Structure formats: structure tokens, C-alpha cells
Predict the 3D structure of the following.
Amino acid sequence: MSLDPSFVGRTYPPTAPYQVGREKIREFAAAIGATDPAHHDPAAARALGHPDVVAPPTFPVIVTMAASRQIVEDPSLGVDYSRVVHGDQRFAYTRPVVAGDELVCVNTIEEVTNRGGHGFLTTRTDVSTVAGEPVVAVWSKIVVRGEA
Amino acid sequence: MELPTQTYRVTRADLVRYAGASGDFNPIHWSDRTATKVGLPGVIAHGMFTMALVGRAVTTWAGAPDAVVDFNVRFTRPVLVPDTDEGTEVEVAAVVKEVTEDGLTRLDITATCLGEKVLSQARALVRAPS
């Protein structure tokens, strides 16, 4: 089943706010072996000019992956999630994510192509605070593998 | 300029821990039964776990945990993680490509597992530590 190219340019309603917790940042940092004190100790983060512990660079994927369900579970787009492979991933930061952030995601479909029996879907997720301050833009390209 | 290669060991336990921390519980990252059913040789690491390890290398090189301005990768080959105490290893290398007009450093990154590249077009733009 191919993806519907008419979805290009579609923007979805903002997601419910995600509250970034200090313990979640610590847990994520520990899981990837990131030991820099600024991920764990608020005082170390403050010394770098941040209000609380700083998330590692790929932390926002926790927020954006949950937000992207809005797209991949849209039945009219036609993504079979069991056939999805991650293609590309990009983060463009305005500033790092820190504990205490309340983040809202706005998903936009940037590209839909079908080639060689596979579907390719690129989404951009603009992550900002509830106050509207931009934090990070996240691009994700997934490949929906065709039936062999 | 070449930066010092960073090597990270990856075991099944790391994948389970990452699944919990990230919320990505896709069984291909912990169940051989599921992984082989979908045509993989066995359990593979989350692509985002590999990218997170590359992120660690980048912040290590940059000398600051908050230095990353832009970071992108393409996943080209899965990192197979055997169910052994040793697991496998991911090696992350990079060269400094340029320093931009606004003082940012652009890195071209290579990540390999068992001598094979697992990412392509892996790049980061980092700020110098303040």
C-alpha cells in the first residue's frame, strides 16, 4: 500500500504539553552513558547558564516520537507501522531542552514519495514551549517497506 | 583535523535500558523471535540509541553538553547486538570540516560496527565552549 502524496504540506494541531522532568533527563542520560554533570546536577547546569539539568542532544525524540503518532496512526495516510524503518533524523536547536520545559509539538508533513515499492515520509516537528519560545526543530524520515 | 575515536560497548542490557528510558519498546530491539520474524539476523539496536552514542561523542569532542546546534544522521545499516556479555562495539570518528563565519564547528562523523559503516551523512554543528 502506498502513501498518499496529497498529505505533503499538512500541519497537525499542536500536541498536549510534555513536561520535561529532571529525573527523566537523568534517566535518559544514564541510559546512554552520558555522565556530564550538567545532565544530572542542577548546580552544574546553572554554572553553564541553564535553569536546570540539560538534556542530551537526542532527548527530544522522546517527545517527538510520541507526537508523531498523530501522523503514523492517521488511517487515511496509510502507514503500516510494523513495516517502518527509520531513515534519517535531524535536530536543529534554538537552545537545549532543560528540566522544567513544557513542550508542545507541531507536526508538518514535508515529503511523501513512493519508490521501488517502498514509501518514504519526512516529517518536521517544531518543538516550542507552551509560551511559544522555539526550542528545537526535528526532522524524521521513515521508510515504509513494501511487501517483499 | 581528525578527532580522537570514541568507542562504546553495546549490550542487550543497554538496549533494554534505552527502551525504558526512551519509551521505544519495539520488540525488534529485545526479542530475537520478533527480529528474525521480520527478516533481521537478530536483535538490533534502536537507531536513536546509536545516534545518542554519536551525540555523546560530539559533546565529548565539543567539551560541553549543550554545544550541539545541528545534528543529523542517516541510518544505513543496523547495529546487531548479540546476546552475549560482550555485546558489540560502536566506534565513532569525526573530522573537523570547517569553522563557519559565526564561529561554529562543522563535524563530519563516521560510525562503524565490526568495521562496517552504520550511518551515512552524519554531521554536527557545534558551538565552542563558552
In short: Chain A has four helices and five strands. Residues 22-31 of chain A form the longest helix (10 residues). Chain A has one domain: 5-21+55-144. The longest strand of chain A covers residues 102-115.
